[in-house]
Amino acid sequence: MPSMIITGAAHGLGKCIAEHAAQAGYKVGVLDLVLEQAQKVAEDIGGVALAADVNDPSSVEEAFAKFDETPDVLINNAGILRTGLLMEHSLEDFRRVIDINLSSVFIVAQIAARRMKEARRGCIINMSSVNGINPSTNCGAYATAKAGVLALTRQMSMEWGEFNIRVNSIAPGFIDAGMQAPFFENPQVRELRSNAVPLKRLGSAADVAECALFLASDKAAYISGENITVDGGVIHSVLMQLPRS
Q1: Minimal CA–CA distance to 130: which of 240, 208, 243?
Q2: Whole domain around residue 220: which residue ranges?
Q3: Model confidence band, residue 161 (pLDDT cutoffs 50, 70, 90)
Q4: Which residues, 6+ apart, have CB-to-CB distance to 104 below 8 Å?
Q5: At what angle do helices 35-45 and 12-23 cross, to 10 degrees?
Q6: What distance in Å separates the CA atoms of residue 164 and residue 123, rounded to the nearest whole number?
Q7: Angle at 11 between CA 6 and CA 17, to 5 degrees
Q8: Is 185 helix (H, G, I), strand (E, B) or coil?
Q9: Catalytic positions
Q10: Rounded Cα gap, residues 173 and 180, in angstroms
Q11: Which helix (H) or strand (E) holds 57?
Q12: The whole model's pTM is what?
């Protein structure tokens, strides 16, 4: 049975990926900060609940040890958002977003990769965002952190490829789930953003989960160092929004 550890897996995109992975036959490590929340998801899907602070290497090491095997796949999904204009943003919030969205990717991936190196196999998928490609206002350090994830993914793929470890990233767009879900409770925002997408709809958590499972599968065995945007084409739609005359 193939195995997978997902960070931030007790809710949102992480939970959906965990559910899809379990249905696909993976042994899933549901890793989250709060054990009780991880246990609930793990019980529902037949997975393993793992509690860890993704910014604490010792805590992450303990969680991997509890999983009791080298995972075939790691998905770095844990993340937070602190909104605010840069001129008004607090340094505390800026640093916190960088820590959770970027530094933790390095910490958890390094711990996984050291195990995968010994096994001579592995797949790591880091969750970025379209904001890491095209930043938007009022998102504080989020765009900076997600852009860092893209660069870190490429560097990991170069350094760890010789150990048969593939590293890729996913950049979700307007996804009606997880941290973004509250934004789409406003009907006007929902309509505006849906219409901005060439496919004329918001994305779902399942759209992201299916992409993750593809990258984790043997069908993507020769794909490494790449980023896949799951956004309905929205990052290419700027000219579509502007009149020609």
Answers
A1: 208
A2: 3-175+203-236
A3: very high
A4: 7, 54, 55, 76, 78
A5: 30
A6: 8
A7: 45
A8: helix
A9: 142
A10: 10
A11: helix 57-67
A12: 0.94
